[in-house]
Amino acid sequence: MFDRLEIRVLPPGPRFAAQLQLWVNGEDMVAGAVYGSGRGPFAADVLPVGRPSLLRATSEPRRLELGEPECTGGCCGFLSVVVQRFGVIVQWSDWEVPCEVPHTPAPPPPEFHFGARQYDAEVARAEADRRWQVPT
Length: 136
Prior knowledge:
globular
């Protein structure tokens, strides 16, 4: 059985621009890996206008930052994962997790295997939904 990805966008707030929430199998990946006080990546960085999302999986492995602790990734590190497509499977593996004071990393999430059709459809849906953008 494949894992299931859901992408949610939190609207911009007083402190941060719109952010992504990445849910796998019903669990918030960032909250689970950065002690619940972190944030996901900025939506504009991962879902850029006029270009494919950084979440798009190809046969070339790519490290993607998925979140950071409240103190910032420059302080304690980022939550990142290697994204790669293997035919009909998209794999998330080789996690790096931020540290918590006193610099004890959380255990990394497990490796995930998504059915490429569901994964691609969810990424395409998130790319097309621009309700989070603030008009300029």
